[in-house]
Write a structure and sequence with these properties.
With 297 residues, the chain is mostly helical. Helices cover 54% and strands 4% of the residues. It contains 13 helices and three strands. A three-stranded antiparallel beta sheet has the order 1-2-3, with no helix packed on it. α6 (137-151) crosses α10. The longest helix is centred in the first third of the chain and has 21 residues, at 68-88. It is globular and about 60 Å long.
């Protein structure tokens, strides 16, 4: 069939991801689209597809100039699907296992300096408030950005927080990350203070922690736009995202002596190798400091 939505095996796989693997809606959407994209080029029954079929598909999407990250995402979905078919549906040979995918050149994440972080976090209280916005909104924006930098949370994790997830006594926040995996992250005093000031001014005591002007839960997109708005009022020369605040959080921890395993736990990374890229960042920063300061560098 040409549409993954009418494909019973694909639907069983997606249901398995949702129920047994606790996959996020974003992951389910990406995997559904990946299966549908392959189906548009090949109508064979899934169990009759060969390695050559997938090799042809790989060459076709690379020929279109797609980024390697996109290619690997497509095949991550297909690989997971065929693993499901071999483990649950009696498929004897996985046709994708022997396929070699292009490697991604790892780019070092951009991070802000501590001076730039301070300038960004102070921006909401210096920028004139929008006329129609509630008086408490700048305090909310300060709390959001302080929390990003204090805890290293993902954008989706910040948006999903409820009031009850922040524990003032233990100075921590309970987070449900990728795959609904729970972790507890400490929060620094400036972030806790900012959250308390915002909650008091906005009269937020239950339900979503961060709300919009209509008092509903703020969306991830709205949080992104908040950050973009204040960035325009700083001297920071690079485009930043909430994820760059996460990068800065991790890098600054390592710069000050935190061990890699602790940073891995705080970020909610399943694999230590994902966290290790930040060690490369700190090494690069050390090299730059050495080159600029040592008389015989």
């Amino acid at each position: 069939m040409s549409d993954a939505r009418k494909d019973s095996l694909a639907e069983e796989f997606l249901k398995y991801l949702a129920v047994e693997r606790n996959a996020s809606p974003r992951t389910l959407k990406a995997y559904r689209e990946a299966l549908a994209a392959f189906r548009k080029t090949n109508s064979k029954p899934w169990k009759k597809c060969s390695t050559d079929d997938f090799r042809d598909y790989l060459f076709a999407i690379m020929k279109r100039g797609q980024a390697r990250s996109y290619v690997r995402l497509q095949f991550s979905a297909l690989r997971a699907f065929f693993k499901f078919l071999t483990e649950r549906k009696g498929l004897k040979i996985d046709p994708i296992r022997a396929l070699q995918l292009p490697k991604i050149d790892k780019k070092l994440p951009l991070v802000l300096t501590q001076v730039q972080i301070a300038e960004l976090l102070g921006a909401p209280l210096k920028v004139p408030k929008e006329r129609a916005a509630p008086k408490w909104m700048p305090l909310r924006d300060v709390a959001i950005m302080e929390l990003f930098y204090s805890s290293g949370l993902r954008l989706s994790e910040v948006a999903a927080l409820d009031v009850q997830h922040v524990d003032l006594y233990t100075e921590s926040v309970r987070v449900f990350g990728k795959g609904r995996k729970e972790r507890v992250c400490p929060i620094g005093a400036p972030a806790l203070d900012a959250i308390q000031k915002y909650r008091s001014a906005a009269n937020v005591h239950t339900g979503p922690l961060f709300i919009n002007s209509r008092r509903g839960r703020i969306s991830p997109r709205s949080i992104w736009l908040v950050l973009k708005r204040y960035l325009r009022h700083t001297s920071i020369p690079i485009s930043i995202s909430p994820h760059k605040l996460r990068h800065s959080f991790a890098t600054h921890l390592l710069d000050r002596g935190a061990d890699l395993r602790s940073v891995q736990a705080l970020l909610g990374h399943a694999s230590l190798s994902t966290t290790q890229i930040y060690t490369h960042v700190t090494v690069e920063r050390l090299k730059k400091a050495y080159a600029s300061a040592h008389p015989r560098a």
